[in-house]
User: Which sequence fits this backbone?
């Protein structure tokens, strides 16, 4: 498996590209965010699309010509990181986070508390919870753990 990390500037994020990344987002969310309902996923998709278009730094994991994951970083914070379920547990998320720590000096990440696998992963990567919010940024009752690099 030869996976490449491709940095996409805002001018390189065509509607077709963003559409493919949204497919990855949806597959990832369905596999890892079991607390979300179908209605939640449909409601969140336009927000994910908007974020993909405008996030400062967007790195895409490519398997050949196909995107299989992505990470968005804004102001030293991982704002989004999603991986197609077929590529989970292959070290790809670790590779992205390690590179972001090294090259972008990432310090922060927010994690849905109900996504315990992600919280544990970031803990192993040296992040610790410094705040818990009962509601997400949209006011939904999806508790958020704010984590900071130790």
Assistant:
């Amino acid at each position: 498996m030869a996976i490449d990390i491709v940095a996409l500037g805002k001018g390189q994020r065509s509607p077709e590209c963003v559409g493919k990344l949204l497919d990855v987002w949806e597959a990832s969310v369905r596999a890892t965010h079991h607390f979300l309902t179908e209605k939640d996923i449909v409601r969140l998709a336009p927000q994910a699309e908007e974020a993909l278009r405008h996030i400062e730094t967007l790195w895409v994991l490519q398997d050949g010509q196909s995107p299989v994951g992505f990470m968005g970083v804004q102001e030293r914070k991982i704002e989004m990181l999603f991986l197609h379920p077929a590529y989970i547990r292959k070290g790809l998320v670790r590779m992205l986070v390690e590179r972001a720590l090294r090259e972008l000096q990432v310090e922060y990440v927010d994690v849905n508390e109900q996504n315990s696998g992600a919280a544990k992963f970031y803990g192993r990567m040296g992040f610790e919870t410094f705040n818990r919010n009962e509601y997400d940024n949209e006011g939904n009752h999806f508790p958020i753990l704010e984590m900071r690099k130790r």
